[in-house]
Amino acid sequence: MAITLGAVPAGAWSLRSLRAVEAAEAERFVAECEWVRKTAARSTPEPAWRRALLFLAQHEVRFTSHNGRFEVATIGELCGAVAGIDADPVVPAADARKTLARAGIRVESDAERTAWEFWIARSSETLPRAFADSPWASAWASVLLRAPGASRHPLEKVRFAQVMTRAIIVPLAALIGDES
């Protein structure tokens, strides 16, 4: 990042002066250029856990709805339907809950019933397939555990549809951008 942003002010300096810049002058010059500070702040990359979570939320899942129709929805849409945060859900909450459980995800309220959480199965067929062609293919669970408030589920095994497996917990706020 510094190399990319440093080239532009260096070019600007060369237009102002024929002599080489000294370190103190360069720092002062950059400090006076507000656009450099703003650009550096904007170009800070999102953490890997956030990108992985957003990637997962965009993964499409096919399912049969309660009325027998084949449907497609993203994991994010299904989570929103279960948590009730979508004013106009594309899928009824019961269908969403069942579909997510089959994929190895549950959306539950926390112990104090103050926030929603993802419960994500450590062993699931759907999740490794979702991450297969991504940078997180081999360590997606470890990456998601880096999200603020994420942890291993305190129970040894958690039920996801008909399967009992270990799980991790990620606050839903980490996905919707309210990790405060």
Outline the structure in words.
The protein has 180 residues and is an alpha+beta fold. It is built from nine helices and eight strands. The protein has two domains: 2-42, no CATH class; 48-176, no CATH class. 43% of the residues lie in helices and 19% in strands. Helix 5 packs across helix 6 (93-103). The longest helix is centred in the N-terminal third of the chain and has 15 residues, at 2-16. It is elongated, with a radius of gyration of 23 Å.
> What is the typical, i.e. mean, pLDDT?
85
Order of helices and strands: HHHHEEHHEEHHEEEEH
Radius of gyration: 23 Å
Q: What is the end-to-end distance?
A: 27 Å
- Could you list the spans in which at least 5 consecutive residues all have pLDDT below 50? none
Please bin the fraction of helical residues: 40-55%
- Strand content is 15-25%
Structural class: alpha+beta
How is the secondary structure organized here?
Blueprint: H1 2-16, H2 23-32, H3 34-42, H4 48-57, E1 60-64, E2 70-74, H5 75-83, H6 93-103, E3 105-109, E4 116-121, H7 126-130, H8 140-144, E5 151-152, E6 158-160, E7 163-165, E8 167-171, H9 173-176
Antiparallel strand pairs: 1-2, 3-4, 4-8, 5-8, 6-7
